[in-house]
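Exercise 7b. Backbone tokens:
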């Protein structure tokens, strides 16, 4: 990772640390000439291990398709369980996105990118894709932070609520169940459901309603 100490410090302040941080990535969809710009959102892990920051994207997702074409994306931080679950399984409305114009002055000839982010996010990190390594069923993309946006000045940190994290876990298990149809994931989802009922906030329970809605559709 070719990163400045200043950027890494900002990342840490934003709460993105070593290990895997789960954020909602927003990317620009491909548009035919003359078409309106449209955007995509879905949760993915930002992996920061052994001084390397990267994404591991399984082929088949819109995000993977977009990031094999686009060099910039936004990583949106939120603890809104509804936003997490909706963006995992459904398309968000275009009104839920805003665009930021980013000028990459580090490139030999400065590049201007229009990057979508979520209006409801608390904080946003803009990332640049610096290298792609393609395997049969996935792509690894090395990334580096490019800029930082604070949208919600009121929110300085996250409270650990087991209900919220259980919604995130339930979303992960359901995406895996969709891929494999392995019923062990349904047991795991049931376990998280009971935690959400016990520990979750109203918004976490509403987030899990979206997981249940999706379960009824598949
Ligand atoms: C918390 C969380 C983390 C995820 N991380 C990844 C990941 O790192 N790589 C991946 O390929 N899919 C990951 N997924 C699955 C994608 O979010 C899921 O396939 C999604 O439907 C893709 O949406 P899209 O087609 O709009 O991009 C994750 C899901 C959740 C809920």
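Sequence design result:
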């Amino acid at each position: 990772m070719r990163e400045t100490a200043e950027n890494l410090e900002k990342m840490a302040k934003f709460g993105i640390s070593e290990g895997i941080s789960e954020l909602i990535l927003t990317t620009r969809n491909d548009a035919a000439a003359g078409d309106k710009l449209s955007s995509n959102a879905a949760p993915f892990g930002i992996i920061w291990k052994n001084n390397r920051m990267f994404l591991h994207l399984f082929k088949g997702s819109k995000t993977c398709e977009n990031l094999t074409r686009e060099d910039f994306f936004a990583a949106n931080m939120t603890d809104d369980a509804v936003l997490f679950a909706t963006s995992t399984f459904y398309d968000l409305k275009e009104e839920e996105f805003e665009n930021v114009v980013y000028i990459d002055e580090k490139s030999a000839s400065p590049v201007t990118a229009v990057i979508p982010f979520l209006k409801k996010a608390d904080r946003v990190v803009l990332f640049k894709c610096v290298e792609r390594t393609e395997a049969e069923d996935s792509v690894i993309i090395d990334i580096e932070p490019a800029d930082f946006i604070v949208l919600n000045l009121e929110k300085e940190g996250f409270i650990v609520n087991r209900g919220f994290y259980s919604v995130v876990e339930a979303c992960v298990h359901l995406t895996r169940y969709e891929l494999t149809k392995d019923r062990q994931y349904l047991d795991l989802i049931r376990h998280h459901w009971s935690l959400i009922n016990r520990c979750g906030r109203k918004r976490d329970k509403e987030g899990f309603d979206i997981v249940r809605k999706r379960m009824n559709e598949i």
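Instructor comment: The two ends are 40 Å apart (CA to CA). DSSP finds six helices and eight strands in the chain.
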